Structures are given as structure tokens and as C-alpha cells.
């Protein structure tokens, strides 16, 4: 940058300093377009300053402008990289938490309270005898024969009441049936 000649116009400034300025800036920013932008802006700033005051020698002044603009760019890149790194780290942490949470969840446990509540509400809506017969069969593990004897009804009567209860439960739990598939109380 050792050229210290009197300059009269922007073209002279550009032709005299562009190539050396570009090579200097590019050696630090490692990006052709960014280097071109920094050099163009710096040469314009130098030319505007020359219109207001005499700068002698020009090369050190231009070097100072180029250096400051390149430093600003590198600092900005560093800040952006840090922000991207923090965002990526946060996203990775959140993804790990969601993955671990999903891996440790058991759909039957997640919906167990809700299903239990639906079952209780459905049983409450049944006719009293149908509810009692279903409870004896499915929860107290009484045989159809024992239930028939207790209520003085036929085996077909017991099957009818259990069938009614199962139909009502299937309707109430239709959204949960895939989760409940093998549970014993929905089998006839």
C-alpha cells in the first residue's frame, strides 16, 4: 500500500488501491464477495474523506479503514457463530429431552387414568343389575354359573347383561380400543 500519489478522482483511487486492498482483506475474511464489499465501501469512504480533507499519506489511512471493516466483519461472524452454536445446542438438548421422554413413556400408563375414569362413568350409566353382574364377572372373577345362582337367573340372562355392559364400554372407549386391545374385560 506504499503508493502516496495525489489523487483527483474515484477512478484513480480505485485503480491504484483496489487490487492490494482486495488481497489484504480476502486474506482475513476468506470470502470473495465480502472482501469485494469491504474494499468497495472502504475506497468510497476514503474518497469521501479526501473530498473534505487532505490525507497524506493515503495508504496507512486506507489500511486503517480496511483493517477496521475486516475486524468488524470477523467479530460479527464470531457472534453469529456463537449464536448459531447456542441455538443448535439448545435444539439438541430439547430434542434429547423429547426423545427420552417419548422413549420412557408407556401409552397404557399415559391413558390409564383417563380410561379408568371412562370405565367408571360408563358403569355408572348401566342399569344396576347389568352393572352388578358385569362387576361380579370381570372384577370379582365369579363364574357365569355363580352369578346366575346368586341372582336366580339363567346363564343366558348372565350373558345378556355382560354383553350389554361390554357393548356400552366399547362405545365409550372406541378411541382407546387399539390401546386396550388385549385387556380381558372387553372380551366376551
UniProtKB/TrEMBL annotation:
GO BP of this protein: DNA-templated transcription initiation
Presence of the UniProt keyword Transcription in the record: yes
Entry keyword set: Sigma factor, Transcription, Transcription regulation
Superkingdom: Bacteria
Residue ranges occupied by any RNA polymerase sigma factor 70 region 4 type domain in the UniProt entry: 118-169
InterPro entries linked: RNA_pol_sigma-70-like, RNA_pol_sigma-70_dom, RNA_pol_sigma70_bacteroid, RNA_pol_sigma70_r2, RNA_pol_sigma70_r4_t2, RNA_pol_sigma_r2, RNA_pol_sigma_r3/r4-like, WH-like_DNA-bd_sf
Family the entry assigns: Belongs to the sigma-70 factor family. ECF subfamily.
Protein name: RNA polymerase sigma-70 factor
